[in-house]
TrEMBL record:
One of its GO terms (molecular function) is DNA binding. This is LacI family DNA-binding transcriptional regulator. The keyword Ligase does not apply. Residues 2-56 form the HTH lacI-type domain. Keywords: DNA-binding, Transcription, Transcription regulation. The keyword Magnesium does not apply.
Amino acid sequence: MATIREVACQAEVSIATVSRALNTPHLVAEPTRSRVVDTARRLGYSSRRPRRAGAGPGRTGFVGAVVPDLANPFFPAVLRGMRNAPPAEGRHVLSLDAVEDPALEADLLRLIARQVDSLVLLSPRLPSDRLRALSIPGRTVLFNRLIPGLPGVVVDCVDGMRRLVAHLAALGHRHVGYAGGPRASFGDAERRRGLAESGRTGGLRVVDLGAFPPYFASGAQIADRALREGVTAVIAFNDLMALGTIVRLRERQVEVPERISVTGFDGIPLAAASTPRLTTVAPPLGRAGQTAMALLDAEIGPGVPGATRWRVLPVRLVVGGSTAPPPAPSGGAGSRK
């Protein structure tokens, strides 16, 4: 029986395009849709065939992983951990990119659940009830999301924010801006919770700079808003946004960290390669992927009564050159030096 991957290969399109062409055809251009439909018909593939009742582990050998943004280096690092988790032989991770689109995320879940033995959903954006309905019962693990009844692995974002706030407070910052990520992001909600708790105890005045798409390009708007607010430090939702913020500040001839400190979150390799090196919070991304697979194996296996079905992974603060004490008051309201 043909698989979606074979259809995508034969039609010379992505797996996501096959999903849209067969499930939401109005989203696909007619020539592409016709090519996909003709290929699926020729190969005998149906996106609506039911999953066999009682099918045991290893029926396909695939674990489906749906991610919100494969272009963000954070997620491929987790996927590598999943692929390196024992037992690797005979098991393959099939990853699909929802491109920060909850509607596409739902489409991909509906499709991939028919093609794989189990699911790992990385930072899913869908509401909890939709995720429960679209998951494979007893064969689904979440990463960076906690939903009652589903096993999951989360990064300790609250502690990560505590560490960032303590670092900035120790440097003397008292007026800090937070550039948030997608409103549907569990990680953003946890970062905001940690910031609210630690900001009060650290004596910081925290300005909400807004919610932004979690991309490098968002840095331009973040930097402009931070300058208008007069903050001395910016905490960005992720490293990509932080790096984009630094670039925009340079364009405006605002020195980092002499004029404004900037921090990220995620610990991607680009953070260490930037100039100045980015101060960030680094989760153990490879370990996160391996832990998700271990929870999945425990879920499929006989299980241990009373076993914990979720894990919280520790983080570490990586101090780079993008943070420093705030500038001394100069007396000139418009001064940037």
